[in-house]
Amino acid sequence: MPALAKYPSIVVAHEQSPLLEPEYEPTTNLTMPKLGLMGSQAIRRGKSVPQTIGHRGFKAAAPENTMAAFRAATEAGVEALETDLHLTRDGVVVLCHDETLQRCYGSKAKVRDLDWSEISQLRTLREPHQPMPRLVDLLEYLNLPDLEDIWLMLDIK
Prior knowledge:
Elements: E1 21-22, H1 39-44, E2 47-48, E3 53-55, H2 67-76, E4 80-87, E5 93-95, H3 102-105, H4 116-119, H5 135-142, E6 151-156
Parallel strand pairs: 1-2, 3-4, 4-6
Antiparallel strand pairs: 4-5
């Protein structure tokens, strides 16, 4: 996972639980192999494994909740992506954390008050300037070869 080496503040850690014996100690070594065990399989074996989740993608590498951030997260080797869902006025599901577009896109408008045709023209304030993706864009990306095992956590706003 050489992409993570540029970001030394990222730490991979295991869940803390008195019921589980950790298989790995918390580490900043970001070259660990991709883990095959997930969730209940790890619990049944009595072990806890690190779970890496790209929260809003890899927002240290690209603007949050953009396809660039999700690509950076998967290239870094995450096992899951987390994103936030909002509906546009015309019913398109888009990926945006905030109710308004101010913080990331510089518009005081609310997502629900605009149509997709208007939102699709916006670009993030942060470089590289990215459009707001739709849920369908992320789902299509996760259907690419080698990405089918990445799970998705959706925060419905």
